Amino acid sequence: MSLATYIKTHQERFIQELIDLLKIPSVSADPKFKGDVLAAAEFVKDQLLRAGADAVEVCPTAGYPIVYGEKIIDPAFLLCSCTGITTCSQLTRMSSGTPRPSLR
Fold it and tell me: What is the pLDDT along the chain (104 residues), one digit of tens a residue?
């Protein structure tokens, strides 16, 4: 199966997983969301494990946690990638005031 076919076949799942992550109010600039930031880190950890990572851990720091994951297919070809994820989306406020991502 080609990569494009795989993405198209699983598109709805990918979108739902992103929406589930965006539902966690993990605004790291506001200390009242510290628990939610940790919940978001755990969510990412669980997703990496479900995707087949060999090892994943949430690493505490002096500030906010980072999530480390690895998948070694061939030790002769190691790749290191450090990524900061910033998401910007239009949020629809529910009556409770909780941001809710919506797909448009």
Answer: 899 999 999 999 999 998 998 888 877 777 888 889 899 999 999 999 998 999 999 998 888 888 988 888 888 877 666 554 433 333 344 445 555 666 66
How many distinct structural domains can be found in the chain? 1
Per the CB < 8 A criterion, the answer to whether 25 and 98 are in contact is: yes
Rounded to the nearest 10 degrees, the angle between the axes of helix 34-50 and helix 11-22 is 160
Give CA angle at 29 (26, 69), nearest 5°. Answer: 50
**CA separation, residue 43 to residues 58, 90, 96 (Å):** 10, 21, 23
> What CA–CA distance (Å, rounded) separates 86 from 97?
22
Q: Domain containing 70: what range?
A: 3-101
Task: Show the tokens assigned to 31.
Answer: 């200390």
